[in-house]
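Researcher: Go.
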Amino acid sequence: MSDTVQIELLPLGRTFAVNRDAPLQDFLFAHGVEFPCGGRGRCKGCKVRLLAGDLPISPEERARLTPAELAGGWRLACRARATGDLRLELAQWETAVLGDDSAFTFTPQEGLGIAVDLGTTTLVGQLLDLRSGRVLAIQTALNGQARFGADFMSRIDRAITGPEGQAQLQQTIREQVGHLGAQLLASAQAAPDALRHVVLVGNTVIHHLFCGLSVEPLARVPFESPTPGARRLSAGDLGWALPRAVPVHFLPCLGGFVGSDLLAGILATRLHESEALTALVDLGTNGEIILGNRERILCASTAAGPAFEGARISVGMRAATGAISAIRIEKGALRCHVLGNVQPRGICGSGLVDAAACALDLGWMKPNGRLHHRAALRLRAPVQLIQEDIRELQLAKGAIAAGLRILLRQWGATSADLARVHLAGAFGNYINWDSARRIGLLDVPTEKVHPAGNTALLGAKLALFHLAEEGADYADLLRKVRHIPLHEDPEFHETFVDCMGFPAN
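Model: Structure:
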């Protein structure tokens, strides 16, 4: 009997060999299969369909999948092993990772620099010519840590509950970023010796996991780390296939779960230079809010992002092929746009917001979120939203709306005093703002809202030029920043409950 077996993936048309008895999770992640619960068999996010071969049904699969799904060959990839040759059907995820091509002012320098945005879900890196500011290469990837959990709380749990958990997460992200850096240089045919700096930004959990800092303080009240500052390592320290002496800078976090990606966002939007009161809202896997001007800055984080990225929604998915991404009302019915113009497989965050807004306008849903005379909100077969999905949207949008309201209250201002709101990240770039206002996500006039793109990556690029001049600690800016733990605000619960409802009109 051979030590290897053949795996064929459809519709990708790929066939490859793996070690016999290898867990499917170990190799399917690289081909777009996600493991939202970290491979614990607690969700259905990693479903694959068995077309040929044998995958015995596990107890978790009997609990999570319907008899019809099991009879149709559906299995949970996280529960299965390749004991023999397999032919599997899986949906091809064509993830659109938001890059950055913004123009910016800089002082020319010698050599090359690499800027990397380490997102919870995706990574994007760019290689820059520091003399011209020109982007020479770009690389994107799914964050390899995602196979241990889709959100950062799953990864904290992984890090602190197993003896090898944190080391495994650290090795995964370090090796992946090192490989990404080597790919950038190779694709640009650039000389490695010309590389001067690497700058990384990311949320607090990724900052700690990459830098080898304990995430245990982030798992308990008050959810603050004693080590949020900038870290400098070298390519040699990290074992990367780059010149050993190249410094690798991870920019400092702002406090709690507000990481260096939001510091980069401040730099990118120049919020810290603004005379007028300005906000920056990042609706990623976590929701972060910045409020301030050149005098002072407040920041906070909310547990909002998973629903906006499709997680915890029964038919949720990221903005990829097969996702309902936009919905409008046409002759009293819903008209859905599906990415890739294919049969819909689910709904992403922008479509979810549209669906709720349309249901409100059609009278199919009450302001309290209850569906009116219907068990589900049918979108386009086979995709439909159930009551629990609406509840998840209410929790997510309520957390963001309450967070901004509390920061404004702490500032002594109202939403009318805001001159501009920057929406960062892919969700902020693609959301229909009229729909967002309709559901009460943020009570701000449309003309004040500015989709800002990938501010984390732009800020990281700006930091490449800042390093030679002032270093990477940003001490002067950080002195202006105050982190507001929302859970400690005596009015948070009441405000949150108030923000969960939808506007009547």
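Model: Residues 42 and 63 are 9 Å apart (CA to CA).
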